[in-house]
C-alpha cells in the first residue's frame, strides 16, 4: 500500500508496442522518509517522481524501457536508509533517488560508492534531488552521484547576486541553525556579501540550536534593534516558520531571504502576514510564465495529488535528463548513462540546464520568489502563492562555484 | 536599556506560557506520582480542538470549550488507562503515558493531516498594541499575559478558598491520608488528571496560534514541561510558577548576550578560532533548561520549593 | 559442621544437569541458530536485516541491564551507543590512516575488534556521566538521563570536528589486518562479524547477571535500603552497573560502526533512546531473553512494515500500550505463560481458553486495522481506497463500517466472556 508504484501504468503501457529492442524496466528506488515528522515532504517528493515516471511512460518510456518508481521509507535515518538500500538492490534496482537530509545522502553516497567498487557490473547511480551539502560535489564527489538541485553555496551565490541588484538593502542580519548546514550558509553569505556588496554591513550573525527554540521573539527583537533591513536564513521546518511568524508579528519590515520558504506546510503556517516579505531561492515557481505543455504537466500533477503542490521542478528535470542520457548512450546501464550524463544540456521549461562534467552538479537558472497574495496559482488550497518578477531571475552561469572535485572515472 | 525591557517583557510572557503548560503536570505529578509524558500531547490536542471549534464558530467559544474537551479526554485516559496500570507502579504509568504520546501524535496526523493547520489569532486581537524602540508589540501577546494571570488567580482561588481545593491540597502533600479520611481517591485522581490536562489544553488554545499548530508541537514542548515541574519541585504550584518565570527570563536574557566562550575563558588560553571558543552564550540559550534540569537534580533534588524529594 | 550447611544448600540449589539445561543450553542454541542461518542462503535484504537485528539485540540487552535488572529507567541510552559508535568509527579512520601511512598501533589493529573500542568508549562515557545520575533510582534518574540526552544530542550537532556535523563521520571497514579470513567487504562476511559479537554481547550480559555485582543490582532495584543495611552503597552499585551497561551499549555502537561504516549525530538523540526502550519493554524486561525478542520484532517492523502501512508507528504505539496495560511481562512473558500452561495438568483446558482468546483478539484486530487503514487512506486524500483482498472499503461505505464494528464488538464480547468464565471457575 505504501509502495505506490507506477507499475500499473507501466504494465498498461507495455501492451502498446514500445519501440526499442529490450523491454526491461528501469527501476528507481526512492529512499526518503514516508512516515514520521518528515513524512509529508518525502511523500510529496515520491509523488512527483511517480508522476514524472508516469508521464515519461506515456511518451514511451526511457529509451524504450518503462520506468518504475518505488518508495522505500527510511524514516530520515542514515542507518535505516542503508537497510532500505539493500532491499532496493535485492529487487534489482540500479537507480536511487533521495533528497531529504544531507546525513542520509552522505551515508548513501558512501554506501553506493563502496557497493559499486565491491560489486563490479552491478553499479548503482544516485540521483540526488535535494541534499544540498556542497561537499558532495566537491571533496566528496563520486562518479555515480548526480545532483539536480543547486547546492547550499550556489543558492547563496544566487541570493547574493540578487542582493547585488537591491540598493535598498544596507544592513543584513544572518541567522541560522547551529549545525553544519546552518554554519555553511552563514559562511557563504558573509563571503558572498563582502565580495559583491562591500558597502553592506552585516549587523548580526547568529546561530541557535537545531529545533529547540520555541519563541523567536527575543531573537527578532535583537534583529530589529540592530537596524537590519534584510534577514538571511537557511532555517527549515519549525525553526523557519516560527522565526518568520515572530518577525512579522514584531513588525520586522525588510525582506526575509530563505532557502526553504516554499517547503510543504510553510505557507499555511506563515499565513497572510508574511506576504511580500518572505522570499525563497528556488529553481521554479508555478507562477512563472510557462508553455502550454508545462502548464498541462503542472495541472495534471495538482489534479492527481490534490493535497500537494508542484514544487520539485528538479525532479521533472532529473527524469528528462535521465531519459536523454539513456538515449544518448542507448543503454540503461548506470555506467553508460553516467558517462552520457556528464556535460549533458537539457532545454528545460525555464531555460537550458547543464550537468557539469567536472563535479556532477547541475547548473540551472534560479529565481528569487516572493510570497504573494496576487497569484494565479496558490498553494495549499490558499489564495497565497509564490511568484517572481523579471529582475528576480539569476542565470545558471551566475550560480557557478569553483569545485575542488577530482572526479575518478571508471574505465569505459 | 531596550534589551532589558524587551527581555523582561518576553521572558515574563514566555514564562507564563510555560507555567500554563506545566501547572497541570505539577498537580498530576505531585498527587499521583505520574510524570505524564503525554502532557504536551494534551497541549497539542487543545490547539487542534481550538482550531476546529474556531473554524466552525469563534475563537472565544474555543477558548472555553477546547480546554473542557481536552479535560474530558484526560479524564477518560485516567479512568480506562492509567487506573489499570496503576497496580504495576510508577514506572509502568510513566511508560503508559510514553506510549500514549506516540499514539496521540499519530491520531492527530490522521485526523488533521500531517502539515500545519491554519489556526490564527482572532482578528479582534490581531493588531500591534504599542511600539517600543522600533519593534511592535502584538496585542495577542499581552492577551496571553492576562489569560495566564487569570488562570493563576483562578487556580489560587480554587485551591485555597474551596472545599475541593483544600482536599486537593491535602492530597498533594499527603495522598494516603486523604484516602484514610474517607474521600473517594480514584475520583479525585480522575478529576485532578482531567483538570491538569484541561490546563495544558488551555495553554494549547493560547499557544497554538501564537506559535504553530502542527503535529510536531507536542514533541517540541514535551521535555521542557518536565524541566519546569522538576525544577519547581514536587507539590508546589508556586515553585512551578517560579521555575517557569526563571526559565523564561534566563532564556530570553541569554539570547541577548553575544559573548563568546573565548571572551569569558580567554584567560585559560581559549582562542576564538577554536570550535569551543566560538560558541556564543546566545546560541546556548535554548539548552539552558536542560542544564538546569541536570544541575537541580544533582544539587537539590527537591527542586526550588518542593516539599519532598522526587 | 560445615558439611551440613553445604549439603542443605546443595539440596535447595539446582542440580548440575538443571544448571546445564537452564544456563548453558540456551546459549548453545543461540550459537547454533547464528551459525546455521547462512545455510539457507539469505538475500541481501535478509542479511542487512539480520545485521541490524544483531546490533539492536546487544543494544537492547545493555538497556535491560538498567531497566530490567537495576530498575533504572533511562531516556538517554542512545548517548552511550552513539559515543561508543563514534569512538569505533574514529578508530576505523585511524586504522585506515595508519595502514596507508606510517603504521603504528592502529595499523595492526583489526577492524574485527572495533567493538572493543566501542565498549571502552561507552563505558568511559558511562563513567563520566554516571556518578551524578545514579544517586537515586526512579524518576530523578529518568529525568537526569533525559536532560543529559538533550544536552549531548545538541552538542553532537555543534561540535563538527568530533561528530562530523550533519553528514557524520564515515569510514571504510576493509582496512587493517584481516581476521578469520574475513575481508568484511561483502555483507555475508559482515554477518559473521555481527553474529560473533551478538553472541559475545548476549554471553557478556548473561555472565554479568551471574556476578555478585549483577545480583546486587537486582537487590538494589528491589530494596535499596536493605542493600545499604547489608553494607553496600546503592549509588555505587548503580554506578558500576551503569558503566557496564554503557559499555555494552558502546559495544553495540561499535558493531553498528562496522556494519554501516558511518555514524551521524542523530544516533545520540532521543528517538533511538525511545526505540530501545520500546524494544526492551515489548520484548519483556523481566526475562533475560525478552529484549532479544523485542529487538528482533521491532527491527523487523521498522524496516519491513513501513512497506505495507504508513501507520506502522501507530501500530507500534498500540502494541506498546497493550503490552504495558495487559501483559507487563512482554512477549517473553506471554511465551513463558503459554509454555508452562501447556505443560501443566489442565493443558487441554488452557488450550481451549487460549483459542477463544486468540479468536477474540484477532477479531478486534480486524476491526482496528480496518479503521486505521481506512482513516489513513481518507486522510491522505490521494483518492486511494483501502482495498484488502480486492474488496474496496471507502470511508463512507456501509460495508466499511460493518467490517470495523462487527468484528470489534464481537472480539470484545468474546474476550469479556472468556474473562468472566475464568473468574467464575476461580
Automatic annotation (TrEMBL), chain A:
Keywords carried by this UniProt record: Amino-acid transport, Signal, Transport
Region annotation Disordered: where it falls in the sequence: 389-412
Leucine-binding protein domain ranges (all copies): 25-370
Region forming the signal peptide: 1-23
Any single Pfam family the record assigns to this protein: Peripla_BP_6
Feature: compositional bias, Basic and acidic residues: 390-403
Keyword Metal-binding set for record: no
InterPro entries associated with the record: BCAA_transport, Leu-bd, Leu_Ile_Val-bd, Peripla_BP_I
GO terms under biological process: amino acid transport
PANTHER family: ABC TRANSPORTER SUBSTRATE-BINDING PROTEIN, LEUCINE-SPECIFIC-BINDING PROTEIN
Family: Belongs to the leucine-binding protein family.
Protein name: ABC transporter substrate-binding protein
Organism expressing this protein natively: Thalassovita mangrovi
UniProtKB/TrEMBL annotation, chain B:
Name of the protein: Branched-chain amino acid ABC transporter permease
UniProt organism field: Thalassovita mangrovi
Entry keywords, A to Z: Amino-acid transport, Cell membrane, Membrane, Transmembrane, Transmembrane helix, Transport
Subcellular location: Cell membrane
Listed InterPro entries: ABC_transp_permease, BCAA_transport_permease
Domain of life: Bacteria
Membrane-spanning residues: 12-38, 58-77, 139-159, 188-212, 224-257, 277-299
GO terms, molecular function: transmembrane transporter activity
GO cellular component: plasma membrane
Membrane-topology descriptor: Multi-pass membrane protein
Keyword Cell membrane: yes
Pfam families documented for this protein: BPD_transp_2
Record family assignment: Belongs to the binding-protein-dependent transport system permease family. LivHM subfamily.
Higher taxonomy: Bacteria, Pseudomonadati, Pseudomonadota, Alphaproteobacteria, Rhodobacterales
UniProtKB/TrEMBL annotation, chain C:
Bilayer topology: Multi-pass membrane protein
InterPro entries: ABC_transp_permease, LivM-like
GO CC aspect terms: plasma membrane
Pfam families from the UniProt entry: BPD_transp_2
Compartments where located: Cell membrane
Keyword Transcription: no
Coiled-coil zones: none
Protein name: Branched-chain amino acid ABC transporter permease
Biological source species: Thalassovita mangrovi
